[in-house]
Specification:
The chain is built from 2 helices and no strands. By secondary structure, the protein is an all-alpha fold.
Length: about 55
């Protein structure tokens, strides 16, 4: 059995600037209806979730 290896916090998958840029791009879109707005917010949530992993 392998020993679990903790995540190295010094190795960033994305920079804070990249996260900010991606969120600004997503949130600058104008949704046409509630379903489109929900999809935009889900995409923004996924960006944040991925950045925090």
């Amino acid at each position: 059995m392998e020993t679990p290896k903790p995540h190295d916090p010094h190795l960033q998958g994305v920079t804070p600037g990249e996260v900010k840029s991606e969120l600004e791009k997503i949130l600058s879109e104008t949704p046409s209806d509630l379903a489109a707005e929900s999809e935009l917010l889900a995409r923004a949530h996924e960006v944040l979730h991925s950045a925090l992993q």
